[in-house]
Amino acid sequence: MSYVGETLSNLLHQTAFFNLTWGNYVMILVAFVFLFLAIKKGFEPLLLVPIAFGMLLVNIYPDIIASPEETSNGVGGLLYYFYSLDEWSILPSLIFMGVGAMTDFGPLIANPISFLLGAAAQFGIFGAYFLAILLGFNDKAAAAVSIIGGADGPTSIFLAGKLGQTGLMGPIAVAAYSYMALVPIIQPPIMKLFTSKKERAIKMDNLRPVSKLEKILFPIVVTSVVCIILPTTAPLVGMLMLGNLFRESGVVRQLSETASNAMMYIVVILLGTSVGATTSAEAFLNITTLKIVFLGLVAFMFGTAAGTLFGKLLCKITGGKINPLIGSAGVSAVPMAARVSQKVGAEEDPTNFLLMHAMGPNVAGVIGTAVAAGVFMAIFGI
Fold this sequence. Notes:
This protein is mostly helical. It has 21 helices and no strands.
């Protein structure tokens, strides 16, 4: 009987109930909230579902992301190997390839002024950088945190890995993806604050048709120019433009379909679950994480405001031909930010169609955030 009792006792003590801390329960609750937002509210479910489930797993079974040195048999946990692909910048670069294969750069080519709107929205990144230093982060950590303002999860993960800030990668990635999902909630009040009803109702002229030759040359020219000036952007900008060249060349349909569908979804699963698994209670529930979440929100709000205000300036310069709302789309969260511009504009005039105009700054913001990351890497000699 003693053997049976000991066996049952061992089994009972192997359950998670005897190993979880109050922090684990808090993070499990956060995971449930994320799952609710993703499944019930539809907030970026492709991102939040795997992130939330990874968060749930690691707070029930921490060894799922343990390194080989931390285990008794010298074999790391399943998500440790997924996470290694994040640290090596493989998954963020592959996601950029998939994004490129899905993106039509036609609106940006048709209206090159969108590049300026996309650049203006990056102000939030550099504003948050100096604020992060004031809050006690070192220069590299401040750069890794501030890139959240671009609302671009893969770039945030990429830069954190390159700058050696893997310890902050989890909170940074979760903050970046959370703000991407919350774009429809965060942006509209800021957009309305800095624009008048009259400005929000401005109708823009139809974009000119873009030729096939222009669309083929665009990824080649952008890669050549940007990567010559900032070679460190090659993994992101290069993969983004390679994916787009697959799409626009018309001669590698299979590659374009694979990059934008099967490969993209596989990478999102690996990246999302591994990022979620970095949010153990011990790593996530601390003052540093709160600072990161705060700075990310500030950066994102500043970026939205800067893009909108620059749009307002262009509206004045062009005599009312540009709706300032499209400037807010420069924060890069593709295509959610462009849809928000459309939604806010349609609230003032249901016949106003801003989506394609907003897509220009939106895809310019993707390039702009990658360039901002390249600037930081160049500054630190990475």
